[in-house]
């Protein structure tokens, strides 16, 4: 039986609120492909993926890392990845000594290298600790990828590959991010399994490559 009263319009409105951001994500197909091509190049060269985000994005960072380290699809290659949100002792120690904004950048300077990938997530595009970490990663010569909402903000400006969601609703942004990072995982494997598809990519990023 069809719902009556305010419930059905509310459900439709919920779907409609997600339609625009979903279309915007689809329109970034070329940018997503470029990011995946360059990520595959870094993995092929022996690099690893380092992921970070604050609040709810911290859980997303952990989700991304396990997707790469322990693929749920049988036969897919495991790839080296680590989330900087896992170690509460390191996070709180760095925050106490150097300030909250340094919790990811300080770890990256110790763990990251020029063959690696830094992936930062920020629902509002303004997270200072994610922005500082991406800036530190660029200084190290890492490939930088940002998943950011609200048009990208300061976080997207620090990334070789800014993948943005033009929406101010953090719930919708997070849903788009889940789709995005599953696409990243899937297409990185496509480029690794079919190297000829990446023949035009050098693994050094397109957005700010000459800044490395």
Describe the structure.
The chain is an alpha/beta fold. It contains eight helices and five strands. The model is unreliable at 202-212 (pLDDT under 50).
Quick synopsis:
This protein is 51% helix and 12% strand. With 212 residues, it is an alpha/beta fold.
How are the secondary structure elements laid out?
Elements: H1 7-26, H2 29-44, E1 49-53, H3 56-69, E2 81-83, H4 88-98, H5 105-111, E3 117-122, H6 128-139, E4 143-149, H7 153-157, E5 161-165, H8 170-193
Parallel strand pairs: 1-2, 1-3, 3-4, 4-5
> How is the biggest beta sheet arranged?
5 strands, parallel
Shape: globular
Tally the beta strands: 5
User: Strand sequence of the main sheet, in spatial order?
Assistant: 2-1-3-4-5
Strand content: 5-15%
What value does the average pLDDT take? 90
**Helix/strand-derived class?**
alpha/beta
Q: How many H/I helical runs?
A: 8
**Low-confidence runs:** 202-212
Tell me the radius of gyration.
Answer: 18 Å
Distance between the termini: 60 Å
Helices and strands, in order, run as HHEHEHHEHEHEH
Helix content: 40-55%
Could you list some keywords that capture this structure?
alpha/beta, disordered C terminus, five-stranded parallel sheet, 8 helices, 51% helix, 212 residues
């Amino acid at each position: 039986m069809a719902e009556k009263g305010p419930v059905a319009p509310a459900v439709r409105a919920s779907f409609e609120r997600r339609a625009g951001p979903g279309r915007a994500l689809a329109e970034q197909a070329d940018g997503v492909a470029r990011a995946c091509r360059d990520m595959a190049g870094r993995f092929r060269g022996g690099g690893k993926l380092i992921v970070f985000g604050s609040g709810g994005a911290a859980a997303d960072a952990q989700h991304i890392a396990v997707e790469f380290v322990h693929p749920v699809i049988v036969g897919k290659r495991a790839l080296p990845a680590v989330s900087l949100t896992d170690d509460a002792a390191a996070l709180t120690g760095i925050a106490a000594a150097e300030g909250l904004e340094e919790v990811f950048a300080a770890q990256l300077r110790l763990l990251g290298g020029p063959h690696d990938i830094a992936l930062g997530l920020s629902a509002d595009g303004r997270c200072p600790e994610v922005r500082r970490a991406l800036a530190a990663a660029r200084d190290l010569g890492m490939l930088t990828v940002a998943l950011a909402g609200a048009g990208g903000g300061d976080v997207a400006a620090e990334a070789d590959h800014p993948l943005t969601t033009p929406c101010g609703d953090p719930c919708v942004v997070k849903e788009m991010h889940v789709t995005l990072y599953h696409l990243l995982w899937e297409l990185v494997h496509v480029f690794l399994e079919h190297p000829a598809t990446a023949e035009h990519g050098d693994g050094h990023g397109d957005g700010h490559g000459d800044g490395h």
